[in-house]
Amino acid sequence: MDTSEQYIKMCDCPEIQDGHKIDDGDFYFRKLPSEEIGDWYISYTSQVDDYTEEHPDQWDYLHSKIIWLPRQDQLQEMAWHVTGVGYSSDLDLLTDFNNFCFPLDDLGIMPHHRSVIAAENKDKYIRQLTSMEQLWLAFVMKEKYSKVWNGTEWTSA
């Protein structure tokens, strides 16, 4: 599970946070208000009950900002519904994800110069993503929201 500073920043956006319901097995980043306890920590939920789901504001008993960190399987579930109608098979989803991750593989035998430069730029973009969670999150954000990560925030593609 990626708990890096970059992944936390990438997850801290309304597209990912809005509408998420607390569930068993979720990971959260939480900034703490007290220096004695520390700057931050990652929490893991288990045995979430109906009351917690209906009153998420009371779950934040330290009054600190909580950022949901989606696991890879949760990101893949989001990716299934990216197009509105979803993918017809795992293979279709993985093919699109593969093309997203390996843009240089699609160039063919004699690509146009502009195609090579575009693929190299996409390859450079992909290489800044350092975990599978970051890759899947970037894939979801590109396909569903037409946004790319610029190193500090999501911007329109």
Helix content: 40-55%
Q: How many distinct helices? A: 8
Task: List the secondary-structure elements in sequence, H or E.
Answer: HHEEHHEHHHHEE
Q: How many structural units, i.e. domains? A: 1
Number of strands: 5
Strand adjacency order, main sheet: 2-1-3
Distance between the termini: 27 Å
* Mean pLDDT across all amino acids: 79
Radius of gyration: 18 Å
Shape: globular
- Poorly predicted runs of 5 or more residues: none
Question: What topology emerges from the helices and strands here?
Answer:
Blueprint: H1 5-11, H2 14-17, E1 27-31, E2 40-44, H3 50-54, H4 56-59, E3 66-69, H5 72-80, H6 90-101, H7 113-127, H8 132-145, E4 147-149, E5 154-156
Antiparallel strand pairs: 1-2, 1-3, 4-5
Helix pairs in contact: 5-8
Descriptive report:
A three-stranded antiparallel β-sheet has the order 2-1-3, covered by helices on one side. The protein has a two-stranded antiparallel ribbon with strand order 4-5. The chain has 157 residues and is an alpha+beta fold. It is built from eight helices and five strands; from the N terminus they run H-H-E-E-H-H-E-H-H-H-H-E-E. The relative contact order is 0.17. Helix 5 packs parallel to helix 8 (132-145). The chain has one domain (5-156).
